């Protein structure tokens, strides 16, 4: 050893600490990127963690064959892990942006790319610990139990630091792409320094030169990718959203992108976390079908849950007799864009300039728990699809029970429940959940441009199903007709899946 055994042993444990921190950052990065792009964070986290743990076991077995050349093998593994882990977020984003699909293993399931990257990273991480055990024993022999305890202590503390650094430092300060690249650079530098500095004498001259060149190339590649990360993100954004992106901001709650809307250009579009939420070609079909049937009756006080874009509010304000509209949306910056962005404000008819509209920036579930401003004649739940893990609680029996509590006798609740044909079980689970909360609901569906469709419910706490007919409205409204609503109800009814249980907070069914 070029250093005293105690110092060398401390440096090896410090290397274990850094490698463990980097490994956990890679895992969290994969989960975050997959959840952001594909939704359903529970599925993505389960796939990444289970595949990586399985692959780590395989890697540990493979390490048996590498123990005789532990120093060289460890240096090569760290260089490969730094490259794969550092570039993993960029690779996943590129696949999503330029192919538009993930190649799911099953419908709505994980991506083959995600499984492959998780498998590769798990194999490399699994090789690390056995090789580090061999290296630390070469410095100074000790009983295996003590060596394992020291090694795992450094490993677990490193995992703690990496797990905290990802959400509180790397993600907010550097973003997903640059954060992963920076982690890879640290991983490569520490691995190379540990092997070449402490165990260089175990390597031949050719092996030292090869390892040094490999790590320099890895660091150069990661550094170049970090420099080009902004250009890459813009190019990926053009592939995702087209070349007419007007607004692209990270609000803290979500990524908001507004496209189109210029003179002679394509219709405006609103993307939230990479998913098209509003398309100027067909948004009126959806919002009119969602709002107008619910407004058939008393409508002085209206509560809109979600709908920060202001488009549901626009339809509510078309009806005479509305005195107050209370909007609850978790993203105040989206509401600010809906108020100030010229394209989005024109699309929603400058709804937020109406003095009858007031806005509360809060989670819809939390707001309903403390709401004391009821009762409301109409509640509009303009929320993301129930298949999204983050919104599953907004389609639970508890949520609908809270909504029923703030409704006036005879009030109506309009619910967006995701696609009917694409996910009939999730759609009809919403109906079962409404029923479990004491609400009677009538189903219907509306189609948009291309293959887009929306499943809807109109519910009421009364003993009978509310009538599905449009309310009288003010001038300028192009509402759906009563005949088309009846046809929409029959179309939805043909997809019914009977016998589904209700979804609850403790047992989400979506």
UniProtKB/TrEMBL annotation:
Source species: Streptomyces chilikensis
Molecular function, one GO term: spermidine synthase activity
Catalytic machinery residues: 382 (proton acceptor)
The keyword Transcription regulation belongs to this UniProt entry's keyword annotation: no
Assembly and binders: Homodimer or homotetramer.
Family: Belongs to the spermidine/spermine synthase family.
Protein name: Polyamine aminopropyltransferase
Disordered: annotated span: 465-510
Name of the top EC class for this enzyme: transferase
Membrane topology: Multi-pass membrane protein
PANTHER family, A to Z: THERMOSPERMINE SYNTHASE ACAULIS5
Catalysis performed (reactions): S-adenosyl 3-(methylsulfanyl)propylamine + putrescine = S-methyl-5'-thioadenosine + spermidine + H(+)
Domain of life: Bacteria
């Amino acid at each position: 050893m070029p250093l005293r055994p105690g110092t060398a042993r401390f440096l090896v444990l410090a290397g274990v600490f850094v490698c463990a921190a980097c490994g956990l950052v890679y895992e969290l990065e994969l989960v975050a990127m997959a959840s952001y792009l594909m939704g359903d964070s529970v599925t993505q986290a389960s796939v990444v963690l289970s595949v990586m743990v399985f692959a780590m076991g395989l890697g540990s077995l493979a390490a048996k064959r590498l123990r005789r050349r532990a120093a060289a093998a460890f240096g090569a593994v760290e260089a490969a892990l730094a490259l794969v882990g550092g570039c993993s977020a960029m690779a996943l984003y590129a696949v999503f942006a330029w192919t538009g699909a993930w190649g799911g293993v099953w419908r709505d399931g994980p991506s083959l790319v995600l499984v492959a990257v998780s498998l590769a990273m798990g194999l490399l991480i699994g090789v690390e610990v056995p090789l580090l055990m061999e290296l630390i024993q070469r410095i100074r022999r000790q009983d295996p139990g003590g060596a394992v305890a020291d090694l795992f202590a450094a490993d677990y503390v490193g995992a703690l630091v990496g797990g905290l650094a990802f959400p509180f430092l790397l993600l907010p300060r550097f973003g997903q792409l640059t954060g992963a690249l920076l982690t890879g650079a640290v991983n490569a530098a520490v691995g190379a320094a540990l092997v070449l500095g402490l165990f260089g004498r175990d390597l031949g001259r050719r092996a030292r030169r090869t390892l040094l060149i490999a790590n320099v190339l890895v660091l150069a590649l990661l550094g170049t990718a970090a420099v080009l990360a902004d250009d890459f993100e813009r190019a990926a954004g053009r592939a995702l959203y087209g070349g007419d992106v007007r607004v692209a901001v990270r609000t803290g709650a979500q990524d908001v992108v507004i496209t189109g809307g210029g003179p002679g250009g394509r219709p405006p579009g609103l993307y939230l976390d990479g998913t098209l939420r509003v398309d100027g070609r067909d948004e009126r079909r959806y919002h009119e079908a969602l709002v107008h049937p619910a407004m058939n009756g008393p409508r002085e006080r209206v509560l809109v849950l979600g709908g920060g874009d202001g488009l549901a509010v626009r339809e509510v304000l078309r009806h005479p007799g509305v005195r107050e509209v209370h909007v609850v949306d978790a993203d105040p910056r989206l509401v600010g864009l809906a108020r100030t962005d010229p394209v989005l404000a024109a699309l929603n008819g400058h709804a937020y300039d109406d003095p009858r509209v007031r806005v509360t920036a809060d989670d819809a579930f939390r707001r309903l728990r403390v709401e004391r401003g009821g009762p409301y004649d109409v509640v509009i739940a303009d929320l993301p699809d129930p298949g999204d893990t983050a919104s599953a609680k907004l389609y639970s029996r508890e949520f609908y029970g809270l909504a029923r509590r703030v409704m006036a006798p005879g009030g109506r609740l309009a619910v967006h429940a995701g696609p009917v044909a694409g996910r009939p079980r999730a759609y009809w689970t919403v109906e079962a959940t409404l029923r479990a909360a004491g609400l009677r609901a009538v189903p219907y569906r509306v189609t948009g441009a291309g293959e887009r469709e929306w499943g809807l419910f109109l519910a009421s706490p009364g003993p009978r199903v509310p009538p599905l007919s449009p309310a009288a409205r003010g001038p300028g409204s192009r509402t759906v007709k009563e005949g088309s609503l009846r046809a929409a109800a029959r179309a939805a009814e043909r997809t019914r899946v009977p016998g589904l249980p209700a979804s609850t907070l403790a047992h989400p069914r979506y």
